């Protein structure tokens, strides 16, 4: 049988992972990316075993080990006293329970590892300067339309073009994204600029009224990632590259623990980025007979369970399995993929939104009780990290 030709819109973490998974299974894949060069911003991405297993299946273990940090735990601390409210063991406990490590990665490193994998599998796979506008579909196949007038035909189209997906707009209608009420500050700090005992090899979530902050190490421990998530009435533009004055970041965290002040004080004054966090509610369908979506195009989320990119990686593996086992009936394969991803991804999207309230409970005793009652450690072990996209049954 002829190998199906798959077109992917978008070369983010999702599009690249999907391409690698599909090429490895024998599909002919072409990615169309709007940017003129491949790359990612300077920020961190956490990746739990459920995604790392997929990356390992692509032969990326050695490359990832060179750049990853293996955190020992997620620590949830009170914003002012630093009291430990809750801890989720990671490190060896995560790896032995779930069969792969928990990684902290620089986004640019993960993106680069994936891009090099795709190029090694097929040097002609990625077309840059290719802004996708939409598609035409018939029983014979699907044709991708590019903004510059070019068009490309294939058997299947995957929209991996992010939260403002053009493919999504055509499948589900043009709807604006919703501002979640939070903006995100981001910065990375070389560890030489911080006291050596500032934080153990953990991911710390500082929890407080109307905001929280996340800190963890990247690049084999060479830099610290700082993200400050703050309620703001006026949304920013949604741009990962918009700078704002350092003084505004400092002002947002007045009164927070000295550790946070030390980290903020060490941030390069000209490298404070701030952007709006947007979202969309989960949907019940994201496919047509020959077109589907993955990652943020299908199910954008607040990042409060550190699982947006993880879901895109899971989607990629499950979609590749469904297409491989459903070569004779692409519409059925896409429905099988979607059926098996809808509930889990909606659970993560809704859980991430719910985490926002948990991390921000004003009263200290109430917060302590809420962390105790919700027992994130147990919940995340039971269903979030234990999922294996490579072997999970796909009814
Ligand atoms: C502050 C923050 C922290 C986060 N932390 C984590 C974390 O720790 N762990 C985690 O798993 N997730 C995290 N996430 C979520 C994660 O970043 C996203 O879920 C993930 O990047 C989605 O990947 P994607 O490939 O689906 O989309 P994107 O990364 O948005 O990639 C889409 C690609 O498509 C391209 N594109 C867009 N439109 C077009 C078009 N019309 N034509 C052609 N190309 C197009 C874009 O240029 C881009 O290359 C975080 C998010 C934020 C905001």
What can you tell me about this protein's structure?
This protein is α/β, with parallel strands linked by helices and 395 residues long. The chain has twelve helices and 17 strands. Helix 2 packs across helix 9 and helix 9 packs antiparallel against helix 10. The longest helix has 30 residues. The chain is globular and about 65 Å long. The protein starts with a strand and ends in an 11-residue tail after the last helix. The chain binds flavin-adenine dinucleotide. The site of flavin-adenine dinucleotide has 32 residues, from helix 1, strand 3 and helix 9.
Provide a concise account of the structure shown.
Helices cover 36% and strands 25% of the residues.
Question: Regarding quaternary structure, how should these chains be classified?
Answer: single chain
Give the CATH architecture. Answer: 3-Layer(bba) Sandwich
DSSP strand count: 17
Shape: globular
CATH topology: FAD/NAD(P)-binding domain
What structural class should be given to the helix and strand makeup?
A: alpha/beta
Indicate the low-confidence ranges by residue numbers. Answer: none
Biggest sheet architecture: 7 strands, mixed
Q: Which ions, cofactors or small ligands are bound in this entry?
A: flavin-adenine dinucleotide
* Beta content: 25-35%
């Amino acid at each position: 049988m002829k190998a199906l030709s798959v077109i992917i819109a978008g070369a983010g973490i999702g599009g690249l992972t999907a391409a690698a998974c599909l090429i490895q299974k024998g599909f002919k894949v072409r990615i169309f990316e709007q940017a003129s060069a491949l790359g990612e911003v300077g920020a961190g991405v956490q990746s739990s075993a459920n995604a790392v297993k997929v990356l390992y299946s692509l032969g990326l273990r050695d490359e990832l080990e060179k750049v990853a940090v293996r955190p020992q735990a997620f620590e949830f601390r009170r914003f002012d006293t630093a009291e430990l409210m809750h801890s989720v063991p990671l490190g060896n406990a995560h790896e032995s329970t779930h069969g792969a490590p928990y990684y902290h990665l620089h986004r640019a490193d993960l993106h680069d590892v994936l891009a090099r994998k795709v190029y090694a599998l097929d040097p002609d796979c990625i077309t840059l300067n290719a802004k996708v506008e939409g598609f035409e579909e018939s029983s014979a196949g699907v044709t991708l339309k590019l903004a510059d007038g070019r068009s490309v035909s294939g058997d299947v189209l995957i929209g991996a073009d992010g939260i403002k997906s053009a493919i999504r707009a055509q499948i589900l209608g043009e709807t604006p994204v919703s501002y979640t009420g939070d903006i995100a500050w981001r910065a990375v700090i070389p560890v030489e600029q911080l006291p050596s005992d500032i934080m153990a090899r953990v991911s710390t979530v500082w929890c407080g009224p109307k905001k929280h902050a996340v800190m963890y190490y990247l690049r084999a421990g060479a830099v610290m990632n700082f993200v400050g998530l703050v309620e703001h009435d006026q949304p920013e533009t949604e741009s990962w590259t918009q700078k704002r004055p350092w003084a505004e970041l400092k002002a947002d965290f007045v009164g927070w623990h000295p550790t946070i002040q030390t980290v903020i004080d060490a941030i390069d004054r000209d490298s404070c980025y701030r952007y709006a966090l947007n979202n969309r509610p989960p949907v019940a369908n994201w496919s047509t007979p020959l077109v589907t979506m993955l990652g943020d195009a299908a199910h954008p989320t607040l990042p409060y369970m550190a699982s947006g990119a993880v879901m895109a990686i899971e989607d990629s593996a499950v979609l590749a399995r469904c297409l491989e086992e459903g070569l004779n009936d692409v519409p059925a394969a896409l429905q099988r993929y979607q059926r098996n991803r809808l509930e889990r991804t909606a659970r993560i999207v809704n859980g991430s939104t719910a985490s926002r309230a948990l991390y921000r409970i004003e009263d200290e005793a109430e917060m302590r009780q809420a962390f105790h009652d919700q027992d994130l450690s147990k919940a995340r072990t039971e269903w979030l990290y234990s999922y294996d996209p490579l072997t999970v049954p796909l009814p």
